[in-house]
Amino acid sequence: MFSPEGPTLRELAVQALSSVERGYDLLAPKFDHTPFRTPDPVLDAVAAALRRTGPYEEGLDLCCGTGAGLGVLAEVCRSGVTGVDFSAGMLAEARRRTDVTGPRVSFVRADARALPFASAFDLVVSFGAFGHFLPRELPGLFRQVHRVLRPGGTFAFPVLAPPRLAHPAFWMLLGFDAVMRVRNALWRPPFVMYYRAFRLGDVRRELERAGFAVDLYALPEFGRRDDGSPRVRMVAARRTS
């Protein structure tokens, strides 16, 4: 997909007609050659922002995929970093690809909605995973993150400003979500992947209900829109209770 090393249209079709877990197992060997991987500039900008608020001891990459976010954690966590994902294929790629120095690295296969940890982490990050959760699942997901963080710990993730109505990207995302809704209405098992379901106002409200104090940091590397608002923000939600 968009590169010789990426998946073919047939492979993407097979993935799209699978469950989320099975689909990512199939896609895992070629995932880093698709547009779905979080771009390095976003990872670097979040790492820079976290260096200003850290350091941290133990870090968790929630829905780590092939491990792109583990490098961010390794820059700001002194003791250990853990990647958790429910796709065995993605975790296998993460183990193969991850090469960080400093903190110890471990991997755990688990569902983000039922994390097998106690209050073990000072920092949780996540990149590009929230489209796989329905809006009604966010309160439970945020409660899970709250539970695995130590008091005062931080849950951080980037949020891109939504495209304007007149921008082609708006209609591309709208069309993608419409196709996925039709697919899920006609085919089982469902493949949850919606780009327009994660709205910052709703997310902030649910984080606060889950016991977080929420701060927003503009990531200056991406500039501002015409109205002066940041193109990309980092949400930093601190466990307060």
TrEMBL record:
Keywords: Methyltransferase, Transferase. GO terms for molecular function: methyltransferase activity. The keyword Transferase applies. It comes from the Bacteria. Pfam families: Methyltransf_25 (PF13649). GO terms for biological process: methylation. Residues 60-153 form the Methyltransferase domain. InterPro entries: Methyltransf_25, Methyltransf_Superfamily, SAM-dependent_MTases_sf. The keyword Ribosomal protein does not apply. This is Class I SAM-dependent methyltransferase. It comes from Streptomyces lasalocidi (Streptomyces lasaliensis).
